Amino acid sequence: MEDQQATTTQEQKIRIVGFLCNWCSYGGADTAGVCRFKQPTDVRIVRIPCTGRMDPMFVAKALINGADGVLVSGCHPNDCHYSVGNFYARRRMEAFKRFLPFIGIDTRRFRYTWVSASEGQVWQQVITEFTEEIHRLGPNPGLAGTAEAGRIPALAI
Amino acid sequence: MKDTTNAVQEAVKKVFDGLDVVLGWKPGYDSRHMTPAFIRKAGDIDQMVFNPLCVQNLSGYLVNTLDAGDAEKESRIGICVKGCDSRSVVELIQEGLVARERLHIIGIPCRGVVDMKKLERLRPGLESVEQVTVESDEVIVTTAGNPERFPAEKVLAHKCLQCRYPNPVIYDELIGDPVAARCDKDAPPPVVETLDGLSLEERAGFWSSELDRCIRCYACRNACPLCVCQDNCIAETRSPKWVSQRSGLPEKFLFHLIRTVHLAGRCTECGECMRVCPVGIPVTLLMEKMNHIVKDLFDYEAGIDPELKLPFQGYDPSESGI
After folding, report:
1. Same domain as B302, residue B185
2. Last residue of a domain, one of B156, B185, B218
3. Which of A60, A106, A149 lies closest to B257 in CB terms?
4. N or C: which end of chain A has fewer CB within 10 A?
5. β-pairing, B77-81 with B21-27?
6. Where are the domains of chain A?
7. Does some domain include residue B22?
8. A-chain residues within 8 Å CB-CB of B205?
9. How many CB atoms lie within 10 A of CB B183?
């Protein structure tokens, strides 16, 4: 890990975890590759059977253990290979996305989106935009070191 | 207070013949603490009490201790519930963990319970408490015939100060008259709102300093009436290994996020996790925030209607914006 980091430039020291569904977005990313669309290289892709497999804890564990961004992508709503997996997923993802700021994690570090297997170009656009956003946000500040960051309110609890 | 105790005893006596066990409260190891009571003999009914020191949510015993989910079982269970406790019972029925027909629910409208840690901090050396009365903005504690008045916001439990359901939402019998709620049903939880008003860094700082104290004793999980996995909790399994044995901040965050995620749209905010925390972490706030989000997104609140489906166990194709 250390060696890998040492060989990358300062600019590229961003790690994004992408959870892509087997049937649509993984295929979409593949299509983008086959079509030779230029893509950023900061994303590590984990293939999941369906976005319905997404446990918000995947996102939590990645972000808490130092990932700079997490991208979840699956079939468009109504086009899920298993009919409804992404309907379940989007409820969980949205609730968790809204919860992240409460514990001090920037909600922009997590995004979920829908890309079909034929949409190579859309994938290129999505991953480029997201990577640019994470580069703008910079490395994940993590949990430690933030304790002294601000006045800690005296709450009546 | 004496009246409610008597009324509870009377209510239990009336139905005791049809029941095998009744869950209630009885005096604990000193006058400041009440303890859960499992009444199995008619002679023990006189031990039962109800007062603002009856802090425990008894619905947690229904699942793992009494296995009330099996409708085929013959034993009938009586349970005393306050407003907040009743929501946990509804949630358990909703999830099929407790069979409604096995329960006889004695509902008690509640003006709030005392957070003994707060009271001891405010007034050290309090002994032989004779009576505690909760009024709308004052708590009267009588020791040795001498009543002392304390402001309610200084001694009531966190959950009671933002109580929206003081009256049981499910019951077979209600003891006494319904009381007024301290907070509006649709109001956001006040402490969560204060935290929401801070910057991202301040919130990160707040939770880092709070969760840093966590010793991962899992008391919050064990006390939670809805943490029904208990011995199979993924916080302790080696496969999958979600949380390591290290004692760093990331592990502590992950453990509490597991609870938040698994209680999303299920937590009834009974405050047991916060009450039992030995290091005083306001754990409930995480669940309160998540519940507030769920209410916002799906217009759903946990533990209100036993017929409703859980929001994360269903979907709606027509939903937009998510």
Report:
1. yes
2. B156
3. A60
4. N
5. parallel
6. 13-137
7. yes
8. 104, 146-150, 152
9. 16
Distance CA B65, CA B21 (A): 12
Contact B227, B259 (CB under 8 A): yes
Q: pLDDT 10s per residue in chain B (322 long)?
A: 567 999 999 999 999 999 999 999 999 999 999 999 999 999 999 999 999 999 999 999 999 888 888 877 778 999 999 999 999 999 999 999 999 999 999 999 999 999 999 999 999 988 889 999 999 899 999 998 899 999 999 999 999 999 999 999 999 999 999 999 999 888 889 999 999 999 898 899 899 999 999 999 999 999 999 999 888 899 999 888 999 999 999 999 999 999 999 999 999 999 999 999 999 999 999 999 999 999 999 999 999 999 999 999 999 999 887 7
Which of B 64-83 lie inside 8 A of A, CB atoms? Answer: none
What domain range is B120 assigned to?
114-156
In chain B, how many domains are there?
2
CB contact (8 A) between residue A104 and residue B195:
no
Whole-model pTM: value is: 0.92
A92: chain B residues, CB-CB within 8 Å: 264, 312
- Among residues A31, A22, A16, the alpha carbon closest in space to that of A62 is found at A16
Among A61, A90, A103, A114, pick the best mutation site for testing chain B contact (most B Cβ within 10 A): A103
| Nearest C-alpha neighbor of B266 from the set B207, B317, B308, B316 | B308
Report chain B residues whose CB lies below 8 A from the CB of A103: 203-204, 207, 253, 257, 286
Q: How far does A43 lie from chain B, in Å, by closest CA? A: 22
Q: Are A47 and A20 in contact (CB under 8 A)?
A: yes
What is the C-alpha separation between A60 and B53, in angstroms, rounded? Answer: 38
- Which pair of tokens denotes residue B143? 């020791």
Give the closest-approach CA distance of A37 to chain B in angstroms. Answer: 28
DSSP code at position A84: S
Residue B236, domain member (yes or no)? yes
Q: Is B253 on the interface with A (CB under 8 A)?
A: yes
Q: Are B85 and B59 in contact (CB under 8 A)?
A: yes
Q: How far apart are CA B185 and CA B168, in angstroms?
A: 14
Domain-located, residue B317: no
Right CATH for A13-137 from 2.30.30, 3.30.750, 3.40.50, 3.30.160? 3.40.50
Whether residues B107 and B202 fall in one domain: yes
d(CA A18, CA A48): 10
Cβ pair B202:A92 closer than 8 A = no
B203 closest CB neighbour out of A88, A103, A156: A103
